[in-house]
Amino acid sequence: MNHPSNAAHAHDDAMHEHTGSLRGYLTGFVLAAILTIIPFWLVMGHVIESHQTTILIVLALAAVQIVVHMIYFLHLDTRSENGWNMLAVIFTAVLVVIVLGASIWVMYNENANMMPMSPQYQHHRLGS
Amino acid sequence: MNSIAIDKAPSEPQDFLCLEEGHPHNGTLLGFWLYLMSDCFIFASLFACNAVLGTSYAGGPSAHDVLDLPGLAVNTALLLVSSVTFGFAMLEVSRQRKRAMLVWLGISGLLAAMFVGLEIHEFVGMIAEGAGPDRSAFLSSFFTLVGTHGLHVSLGIVWLIVLMFQLGKYGLNEANIRRLRCLSMFWHFLDLVWIGVFSYVYLVGVLR
Hints:
The complex is a heterodimer of chains A (about 130) and B (about 210).
Chain A (H helix, E strand, L loop, with lengths): L12 H7 L2 H23 L6 H22 L11 H31 L4 H9 L1
Helix pairs in contact in A: 2-3
Chain B lengths: L1 H7 L18 H27 L9 H4 L2 H26 L3 H31 L8 H34 L3 H34 L1
Helix pairs in contact in B: 2-6, 2-7, 4-5, 4-7, 5-6, 6-7
């Protein structure tokens, strides 16, 4: 990165690695805009017949956009803060996956077993 | 037996203790990052609530009935542009250009204020239609998640205003730059959470 030398005195090395560049922000913005427009277009334009497929694509694009934001806006890499930032992110991601995945999994089964059953479902359960 | 053997072992240099490992140079930024990660857990549990309760309409309006996608598109654009203009402000910080930085910060704050304004408008409209947080489990989880995010953005704006006064009065000193970096992370983090909100709660919500 090219910084004017007169700016250096108020800064230190740790600060420079977080600053980013104009190109970085613009790249991030263009990528984020594309990754935002596609899911809106898919849902609002009813592009794909299958809701299931649309949902999977929207979630996949969201995951990609989160990574784009982390790289271009939050300037996350393996070097920032001696790698502790990345370590915290990985730890958080693991716990978030557990919280989300387990909640959905457990509550899906709870719903299937505890909610008032539709006659069809009840028949299926009693028959099996 | 084993423990005795360890006790009698000669005192060798402890290779596993890495003495060169230093503290992070600026602990505040790492600490703030850890706060953001803990905030991530709050949002993760609210997302989990929405995932579980998102179709429990209790005979009330469904997500498809109440959620306004064109308004959402405007809100998403406002927040994304606000995130980028905050990045531009940070670039001006590294160039030591205070006035340009304050202008970019002001623009970011205005965009975020418009975001909050539109969100409040949406909430008021929904409550007036009888689709308030008390109507169904889906609406409770919706208002809690989106409201918590909106509250974060609102407090971010308050923080931004206070910091702009600080910057105006005391200039770009080390403490103010550190505070600004924390707020910058907060700002970008909220935009990151919003990706989950518009993708999952709104776009997936209307399809479920």
